[in-house]
Amino acid sequence: EAGVVQSPRYKIIEKKQPVAFWCNPISGHNTLYWYRQNLGQGPELLIRYENEEAVDDSQLPKDRFSAERLKGVDSTLKIQPAELGDSAVYLCASSLDNARGDGYTFGSGTRLTVV
Amino acid sequence: AQSVTQPDIHITVSEGASLELRCNYSYGATPYLFWYVQSPGQGLQLLLKYFSGDTLVQGIKGFEAEFKRSQSSFNLRKPSVHWSDAAEYFCAVGARSGGSNYKLTFGKGTLLTVNP
């Protein structure tokens, strides 16, 4: 079974440029999460989807970040414009449901460097 | 709101030595507790979890953890560390966060170095 696939693995952009990350969750997992992991920190939730609906986006900086999950499968996270402080690893995870917080499968992440 | 504290940023042990990684949580009720491991350039892998019942839980790769309600702790242990255990370890607590939302909150992690 393929795991959670994320692309690209690495991205270097100049500040004020846009950037997008893509995530393909495990087949059948209806819950999808985007986390941001700053250097030396644990992951922090940005947004959670139940199928195609964003049900928890309270931590998403909506002035510059946006996300979508078309047809309840793949998801894209976008930053426009990027700032130096956005440099981090962006992790995608999926699970069958959100009942207890177990059963998460994480992707390898996208490491973003903003220069 | 829930929170997780991992007091040790970096721990170094010799191969074959025992290991204990500390984790303290803050939450008003009994939380769901997890330990994850992250190798360089990899995603997080679940080592073990506690929901209820026996407070000593066994996980993969020979790890175990003990839930102590009186100390709000969920420490991770391994009797004999292998060089391949070198990685970053994250403790996490799962709890309700507003309405029906369920949120997984991570600690800042403990980096484990294993000396030969």
Helices and strands, with pairings:
The complex is a heterodimer of chains A (115) and B (116).
Chain A lengths: L4 E3 L2 E4 L5 E6 L6 E7 L6 E7 L2 E4 L8 E4 L6 E5 L8 E8 L9 E2 L3 E5 L1
Parallel strand pairs in A: 2-11
Antiparallel strand pairs in A: 1-3, 3-8, 4-5, 4-9, 5-6, 7-8, 9-10, 9-11
Chain B lengths: L2 E3 L4 E5 L4 E3 L2 E3 L5 E7 L5 E7 L5 E3 L5 E5 L4 E6 L8 E10 L5 E5 L3 E6 L1
Parallel strand pairs in B: 2-12
Antiparallel strand pairs in B: 1-4, 3-9, 5-6, 5-10, 7-8, 8-9, 10-11, 10-12
Please describe what this structure looks like:
- The complex is a heterodimer of chains A (115) and B (116).
- Chain A has strands at 5-7, 10-13, 19-24, 31-37, 44-50, 53-56, 65-68, 75-79, 88-95, 105-106, 110-114.
- By secondary structure, chain A is an all-beta fold.
- Chain B has no helices and 12 strands.
- Chain B has strands spanning 3-5, 10-14, 19-21, 24-26, 32-38, 44-50, 56-58, 64-68, 73-78, 87-96, 102-106, 110-115.
- In chain B, the strands form 3 sheets. In chain B, strands 2, 5, 6, 10, 11 and 12 form a 6-stranded mixed β-sheet that branches.
- Chain B is globular and about 45 Å long.
- The mean pLDDT of chain B is 91.
- Chains A and B meet through β5 and β10 of A and β6, β10 and β11 of B.
Helix content of chain B: under 10%
On the 0-100 scale, what is the average pLDDT of chain B?
A: 91
Oligomer: heterodimer
Number of helices, where a helix is a run of at least 4 consecutive DSSP H or I residues of chain B = 0
Beta strands of chain A, count: 11
The H-and-E topology of chain B, N to C, reads as EEEEEEEEEEEE
For the CA atoms, what is the radius of gyration of chain B? 14 Å
